[in-house]
Design goal:
Layout lengths: L1 H8 L14 H4 L3 E7 L2 H8 L8 H18 L6 H8 L4 E3 L13 E3 L4 E5 L7 E5 L1 E2 L5 E2 L6 E2 L4 E6 L17 H7 L4 H8 L14
Antiparallel strand pairs: 1-4, 1-9, 2-3, 4-5, 6-7, 7-8
């Protein structure tokens, strides 16, 4: 039994808690297997090894799902400067859906930076996904912003809430500087609701590292 355990341990590399002080509820939250990738190709390459919970088809299906969810839920800002303040220089672009929304003006979003897959808990088999974007601190996050990661490539266990879909932002007015300040920055409001005010941070090694 020791050999399979050693083999699987190569993939357990994602640590959400890091040095942050977590609330009791957050510590006890159910977790699920997860794997993050910067692009579709790297996911497919790992799926071919057959040692994780997803297939090549899962990579393709969930990549498309993550891109769609990104367009629906990624934070939107009234200026590139404001977006880069929250997500880092060079990490923002125009909203590709804004041209279909008359009267919206200029809208900017953090760029799509990969996606995270999660396995279904309990009976049956299934795979979830979440898009990933950059944070101002140089890490990565899902659109909700309540958990951050040092890398967008790696595997391990994450809280099941990681795969809760963020509120839709598509078609809504982009955030102003005043609104961002009131929220306390990207992810601050979601963090306060989900972890009692403590933001989860962590890092991950490359898959198979």
């Amino acid at each position: 039994m020791t050999a399979p355990i050693r083999k699987r341990s190569r993939h357990v590399a994602l640590f959400l808690a890091g040095a942050a002080v977590m609330t009791l509820a957050a510590c006890e939250e159910e977790k699920t297997d997860a794997a993050a990738f910067p692009d579709l190709e790297s996911c497919i390459a790992e799926a071919k090894n057959g040692s994780l919970f997803f297939t090549e088809q899962d990579c393709q299906t969930q990549f498309a799902q993550a891109q769609q969810e990104y367009l629906e839920t990624a934070p939107r800002y009234e200026s590139r400067e404001l977006c880069e303040q929250e997500h880092g220089a060079g990490n923002c672009g125009g909203d590709p859906t804004a041209q279909n929304q008359p009267g919206m003006g200029s809208v900017f979003m953090p760029l799509f930076m990969g996606y995270m897959l999660g396995s279904m808990l309990g009976g049956g088999r299934g795979v979830f996904s979440q898009p990933m974007v950059r944070t101002a601190q140089g890490g990565f996050s899902t659109p909700a912003g309540n958990q951050s990661f040092a890398s967008n490539r790696g595997t391990g266990k994450v809280a099941t809430s990681t795969f809760t879909k963020a509120p839709a932002t598509i078609g809504k007015a982009p955030m102003t500087a005043a609104q961002v300040s009131q929220r306390g920055g990207f992810g601050a409001s979601a963090t306060a609701r989900s972890t009692g005010g403590t933001r989860s941070t962590g890092g991950m090694r490359s898959v198979g590292g």
